[in-house]
């Protein structure tokens, strides 16, 4: 059922969206201040190699994330669909960079996320990997690439890591997919 919004409800939605954007912007400023100055990069003129990696920042690993979590420290995560955004995430010192299947709608103009292909996701994941030096890259497995059986799920997860240069994969599933997740983590 489609919900119709009146002018007053769309104004409320706009206000909520602005509040969320302002809160996220404030959080990003706090992260940026805590991590030092950021140089500016433009998509027409990529940042130099020396400008892409904050000085002395080691590679974020799953162990780094686990340690930050156990110590109750903030973990910064942003979504990136392309190289310039990944460079900006890198310069801001973002810990986790998500290549989400929402890029189907946001960047490619599809009506929903189910229309994106594995090859399209890997293309964007590789672009993000080229712009990320220290952040931990998590890429979505697109709809339909892990639903049929454990073997297909493992094959596509391996492709995303190997060809898409992701360091982890994310899939959206319920309890029925527990065997798929187990197969990906522990091998089929």
Short key terms for the protein model shown above:
single chain, 188 residues, alpha/beta, four-stranded parallel beta sheet, globular, disordered N terminus
Description:
- There is one protein chain.
- The chain has 188 residues and is of the alpha/beta class.
- It is built from 8 helices and 4 strands.
- It has helices at residues 7-35, 49-52, 62-70, 83-92, 103-106, 118-131, 150-162, 178-186; strands at 77-79, 96-99, 136-140, 168-170.
- The protein has a 4-stranded parallel sheet with strand order 1-2-3-4.
- α7 links the parallel β3 (136-140) and β4 (168-170).
- The longest helix has 29 residues, at 7-35.
- The model is unreliable at 1-23, 38-47 and 49-54 (pLDDT under 50).
Short recap of the structure:
This protein is of the alpha/beta class and 188 residues long.
How is the main sheet built? 4 strands, parallel
Beta percentage is 5-15%
Oligomeric state of the chains?
A: single chain
Give the strand order of the largest sheet, numbering strands 1, 2, ... along the chain. 1-2-3-4
What's the topology here?
Blueprint: H1 7-35, H2 49-52, H3 62-70, E1 77-79, H4 83-92, E2 96-99, H5 103-106, H6 118-131, E3 136-140, H7 150-162, E4 168-170, H8 178-186
Helix pairs in contact: 4-6, 7-8
């Amino acid at each position: 059922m489609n919900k119709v919004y009146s002018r007053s409800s769309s104004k409320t939605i706009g206000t909520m969206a602005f509040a969320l954007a302002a809160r996220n912007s404030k959080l990003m400023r706090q992260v940026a201040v805590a991590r030092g100055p950021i140089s500016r990069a433009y998509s027409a003129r990529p940042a130099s190699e020396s400008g892409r990696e904050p000085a002395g920042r080691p590679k974020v690993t799953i162990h780094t994330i686990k340690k930050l979590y156990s110590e109750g420290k903030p973990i910064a995560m942003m979504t990136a669909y392309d190289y310039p955004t990944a460079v900006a995430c890198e310069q801001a010192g973002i810990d986790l960079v998500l290549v989400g299947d929402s890029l189907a709608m946001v960047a490619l103009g599809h009506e929903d996320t189910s229309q994106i292909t594995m090859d399209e996701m890997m293309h964007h994941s590789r672009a993000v990997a080229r712009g990320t030096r220290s952040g931990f890259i998590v890429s979505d497995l697109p709809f339909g690439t892990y639903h049929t059986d454990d073997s297909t799920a493992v094959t596509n997860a391996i492709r995303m890591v190997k060809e898409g240069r992701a360091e982890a994969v994310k899939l959206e599933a319920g309890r029925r997919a527990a065997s798929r997740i187990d197969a990906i983590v522990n091998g089929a």
